[in-house]
Amino acid sequence: MRRFPEDFVWGAATSAYQIEGAWDADGKGPSVWDAFAHTPGRIANGHTGDVACDHYTRFREDVALMADLGLKAYRFSISWPRVQPTGTGAANEAGLRFYSDLVDALLEAGITPWVTLHHWDLPLALQEEHGGWLSPRMADAFADYARICFDALGDRVRHWITLNEPWVTAVIGYGEGTFAPGLASADGPYRAGHEMLRAHGAAAEVYRREFQADQGGVIGMANNCDWREPASGAPADRAAAQRALEFYLGWFADPLYHGDYPASMRERLGGRLPTFSDEDRARLRGSADFFGLNHYTTHLVAHADGGGPVYDGANVGWAEDQDVAVSVDPDWPTTAMGWPVVPDGCRQLLGWIDDRYGRPPVVLTENGCAYDAEVVDGAVEDARRIDYHAGYLAACHDAIADGADLRGYFLWSLLDNFEWASGYDKRFGLHHVDFATGTRTPKASARWYRDVIARGGLTDDAAAGDGAAAPALASLPAGADAPARLRSPR
Ligand code: PNW
Questions:
Q1: Which is the closest atom of ligand 1 to the Cα of 417?
Q2: Is 80 annotated as a binding residue?
Q3: Cα distances (angstroms) measured from residue 98 to each of 25, 116, 146, 237, 414
Q4: Which sites bind substrate (predicted)?
Q5: 164 CB near ligand 1 (under 6 Å)
Q6: Ligand 1 in contact with 315 (CB < 6 A)?
């Protein structure tokens, strides 16, 4: 039995735009994702989040599902334009009431709310009037919005996450342009990332100065990072993998723990990477009470001057800025997203975080997988999801044994939901959702996770699915020069 610490936080996660629907109800303003999804050609099959899981009206039913799982905690996000329809000014009380009712329902069910202030659905007015995350005004706007949320909910909410995955917004939203707001540019990611960091710093400062002493909660950020395994033992490839991690997680975590960007980014990007003022630096350093990590997969990284091929399905930022090529081992199993399943990468990454940031308290704020699975006779058999989570939880347990201060695990996701540009066809949920009727059906993985939570860990045969156990990275052949699918960078 792999037992987790007694107070380990067993959770599941969602986000507002992906599940709520009710996109224009009760005074809510439009977000950049409403506008993006309403633009033909942006989302697979023309799907939108207009209705999604209809969680806005069904939230009590969803809290009951969480209670059935025995969840200790639930991570959800607040839709900024529900609270401030145009991103500034007075609060929309009807929007706040929805979150207040949700928090009350959670607490009544004995479930601790973990609240993300921004999971990508920026008020559209801030985009149109100011350029969204490219604007230096965003820090103040975000701090004002955060204050409204702390003030309205902080008497009951003790766990706050400022931003979800600023890396994704920066790289995919302002670089590749395939997520909202759909802007493609080489320097956009570095500029947008900079303003998101400044916004985090401003909101964390508001919490610390005005609320933390009374409310006694904690605040952090949820950064995403996949593991980068050197493609070979060659020193150049080892250095390339390290550099790729610095361009990924270091980009957003170094400022929080060290007060500035990684030196490798400054060296390669020079003036393309914005500079923090002394005030920014002071605000940012030490601005996270815990290290939120969203982790899904692993890729191989080799040195390549000027950037090399990038595996399709690996988001790496600009490979040429990093002088890397990204591939996968063709023997790795993959999920429906094309993301390799390599649990040992999770253990390696937790070790890397410990080394670089001095063993901070870490919370895995997302980990999950998409697989196709339909309802047959009222049941959904998703053995591969069980294998995936058994593997990644075992890796977490190993990381704790290595010395990591891992405090919790939020499985992505409670429900099948709107998977951004992929629409509804990529299903990450513990519960199947029939998007025509809204009907939720617990998958086999939901029962499995309930048992894991009840036992406080994994039994030795925890991987009850059929998938073969994944190998540890050290036992893998170094170097994979014929990866399954390659695409050229940009
Ligand atoms: C995260 N990538 O998104 C988000 O926080 C969730 O909203 C999302 O549903 C989940 O992971 C699954 O995708 C990501 O391309 C989107 O590297 C894209 C990437 C990573 C995370």
A1: 9
A2: no
A3: 11, 15, 16, 50, 19
A4: 18, 119, 164, 296, 412, 419-420
A5: yes
A6: yes
Q: Which of 259, 263, 270, 221 is nearest to 239 (CA)?
A: 263
Residue 140: other Cβ atoms inside 10 A = 14
Run of H or E residues at 361: strand 361-367
| Beta strand spans in 178-317 (E) | 218-224, 227-230, 291-294, 298-303, 310-311
Task: Give the integer Cα–Cα distance in Å for 400 and 351.
Answer: 9
224 lines ligand 1 (CB under 6 A): yes
Which 8-state DSSP code applies to residue 86?
A: T
* Ligand 1 neighbour 80 (Cβ under 6 A): no
Cα–ligand 1 centroid distance for 279 (angstroms): 31
As beta bridge partners, residue 325 has 302
User: What does the domain layout of the chain look like in residue ranges?
Assistant: 2-458
Distance CA 121, CA 35 (A): 10
pTM: 0.95
- Quickly name the fold that domain 2-458 has: TIM Barrel (3.20.20)
- Residue 20 marked in a binding site: no
Per-position pLDDT tens, the chain of length 490: 999 999 999 999 999 999 999 999 999 999 999 999 999 999 999 999 999 999 999 999 999 999 999 999 999 999 999 999 999 999 999 999 999 999 999 999 999 999 999 999 999 999 999 999 999 999 999 999 999 999 999 999 999 999 999 999 999 999 999 999 999 999 999 999 999 999 999 999 999 999 999 999 999 999 999 999 999 999 999 999 999 999 999 999 999 999 999 999 999 999 999 999 999 999 999 999 999 999 999 999 999 999 999 998 787 888 999 999 999 999 999 999 999 999 999 999 999 999 999 999 999 999 999 999 999 999 999 999 999 999 999 999 999 999 999 999 999 999 999 999 999 999 999 999 999 999 999 999 999 999 999 999 999 886 544 444 455 675 444 333 333 222 222 2
Ligand 1 neighbour 344 (Cβ under 6 A): no
Q: How far is the CA of 173 from the centre of ligand 1 (A)?
A: 12
Active site residues: 165, 366
Probe target for ligand 1 pocket from 337, 412, 426, 433, with the most ligand atoms within 8 Å of CB: 412
Q: What are the tokens at 269? A: 């990007």
Which amino acid makes up residue 427?
Answer: R
Find the 379 Cα to ligand 1 centroid distance in Å: 27
User: Alpha-carbon distance 65 to 411, whole Å?
Assistant: 14
